[in-house]
Write a sequence for this structure.
């Protein structure tokens, strides 16, 4: 684990020993942030979500930048942001510039990502940048935070930036060993936490968490509640390496079919399926592993947080 | 070899549309698939047919050059021919096209091809592959002889990324192997995962940014030779 100070509430709460929960917000092709802020407020109300990820052009699509919504949810919803930053669209100069800007805006967490290739997104003809990779971005952040310089040793006026940052890891990766070795390189660069891609399989999740223990870095295990059959199907088919259990897909499909025309009943049925699957899942992870918490990717599905986390104590001010 | 792909005939015709007499120059150099005299003749016939459909008569001659990118060879081969023509269509890679434009300043040379990459022929699978992108900063010693710069769609120095599934890459819909998994397999085989684990710092892109120059005598000769060259 890095020994830099805990600048963010997320890292503070982890270090205090709380089993933490984080949420996720996905700004898309939007002109205003009302819904994003509303979602962040919903998360805040639970008293159990310490921070919310703000995604940076997932699947390579062109969406609103992640920095402004990160700032806005902190300002308007008092919800700490985990600012997701991919190295897909910006070279080292632009990344450096954005990190300084975000620091000025009071953003305290960065999640470093490679980013899905533009070839997967809605601007396939665009040039993907990848000037530095995500491990090198970790290197750059450590230098900015711990030494107060840029990559070339030029000093930042006024000292050092005060941020914590993490990297991602994929429990679904096959083969597993190169993924673990890659995470090892990022640990060496000084990450403060690891956040994983979603896992639906208990054995796989536990095994992966066990392997990550060697790094002595807090790990948030990713889970992805399924708001609808359509989302579950999309996830199953289009998210690299992730497969949704067939039973779960089947019961979601049935719930939608049985409650066609009755929105309320449909929502209740879908929520019940998710709670029945994820509540024991999360409890088991908390009880039997060294995970520091759960990253719950319930995008536009905040209503689930309250019932899903009902048995967990509040720990966020 | 330089892997090339013939442009669409309509696109080539559009380039030469203003002219009525063209010279079509094949190249016997490293261009793959071969673009020599036979291909030049075929292209001439196609362009002539295309011109006819437009109610136009096109005169053409096919020839070929040992290597269009060699200024001496290209000049001596084509100089006796060019003055009878209004434009040249080159079947070489981009290097040949540029070279002919430089040598023959009074006539325009047009590209009949798209130059794709420097690659090798993978005869078993009937395709060409880019194994090296001539980046000017070779790291093959650290990667078991497999280049992540040419082989990884994201040019990662510290892969693999999260887009790897079952050892395949997200770009190309999981039909191409992840270069970093291939590197891992290769280094593991030789018990050299120490090389895999090591962190590679940000790359110096200056070695691979266009335009590139290499002063032949500057870096590769000893002082004595240098003096000789510089006089």
């Amino acid at each position: 684990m890095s020994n830099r100070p805990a600048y963010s509430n997320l890292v503070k709460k982890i270090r205090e020993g709380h089993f933490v929960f984080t949420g996720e917000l996905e700004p898309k092709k939007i002109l205003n942030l009302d819904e994003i802020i509303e979602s962040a407020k919903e998360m805040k109300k639970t008293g159990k979500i310490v921070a919310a990820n703000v995604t940076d052009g997932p699947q390579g699509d062109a969406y609103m930048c992640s920095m402004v919504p990160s700032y806005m949810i902190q300002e308007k919803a008092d919800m700490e942001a985990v600012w997701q930053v991919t190295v897909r669209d910006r070279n080292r100069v632009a990344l450096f510039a954005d990190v300084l800007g975000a620091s000025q805006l009071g953003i305290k967490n960065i999640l470093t990502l490679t980013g899905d290739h533009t070839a997967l997104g809605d601007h396939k003809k665009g040039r993907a940048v990848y000037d530095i990779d995500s491990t090198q971005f970790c290197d750059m952040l450590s230098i900015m935070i711990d030494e107060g310089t840029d990559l070339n040793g030029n000093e930042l006026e006024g000292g050092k930036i005060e941020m914590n940052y993490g990297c991602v890891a994929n429990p679904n990766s096959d083969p597993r060993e190169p993924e673990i070795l890659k995470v090892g390189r990022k640990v060496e660069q000084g990450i403060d936490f690891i956040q994983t891609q979603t896992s639906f399989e208990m054995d796989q999740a536990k095994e992966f968490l066990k392997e990550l223990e060697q790094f002595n870095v807090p790990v948030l295990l990713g889970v992805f509640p399924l708001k609808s059959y359509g989302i579950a199907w999309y996830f199953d088919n289009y998210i690299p390496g992730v497969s949704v259990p067939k039973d779960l897909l089947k019961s979601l499909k049935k719930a939608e079919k049985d409650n066609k025309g009755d929105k309320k009943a449909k929502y209740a049925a879908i929520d019940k399926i998710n709670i029945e699957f994820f509540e024991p899942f999360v409890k088991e992870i908390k009880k039997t592993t060294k995970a520091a918490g759960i990253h719950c990717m319930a995008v536009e599905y905040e209503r689930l947080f309250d019932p899903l986390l009902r048995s967990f104590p509040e720990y966020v001010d | 070899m330089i892997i090339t792909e013939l442009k669409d005939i309509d696109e080539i015709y559009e380039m030469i549309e203003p002219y009525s007499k063209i010279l079509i120059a094949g190249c016997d150099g490293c261009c793959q698939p071969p673009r020599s005299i036979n291909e030049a003749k075929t292209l001439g016939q196609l362009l002539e047919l295309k011109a006819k459909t437009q109610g136009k008569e096109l005169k053409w001659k096919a020839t070929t050059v040992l290597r269009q990118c060699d200024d001496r060879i290209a000049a001596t081969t084509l100089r006796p021919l060019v003055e009878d023509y209004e434009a040249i269509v080159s079947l070489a890679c981009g290097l040949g096209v540029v070279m002919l434009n430089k040598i023959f300043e009074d006539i325009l040379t047009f590209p009949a091809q798209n130059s794709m990459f420097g690659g090798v022929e993978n005869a078993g699978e009937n395709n060409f592959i880019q194994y090296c992108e001539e980046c000017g900063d070779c790291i093959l010693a650290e990667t078991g002889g497999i280049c992540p710069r040419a082989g990884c769609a994201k040019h990662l120095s510290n892969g693999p990324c999260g887009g790897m599934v079952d050892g395949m890459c997200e770009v190309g819909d999981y039909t191409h192997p992840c270069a970093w998994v291939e590197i891992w397999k290769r280094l593991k085989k030789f018990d050299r995962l120490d090389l895999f684990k090591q962190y590679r710092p940000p790359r110096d892109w200056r070695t691979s940014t266009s335009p590139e120059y290499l002063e032949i005598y500057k870096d590769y000769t000893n002082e004595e030779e240098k003096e000789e060259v510089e006089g």
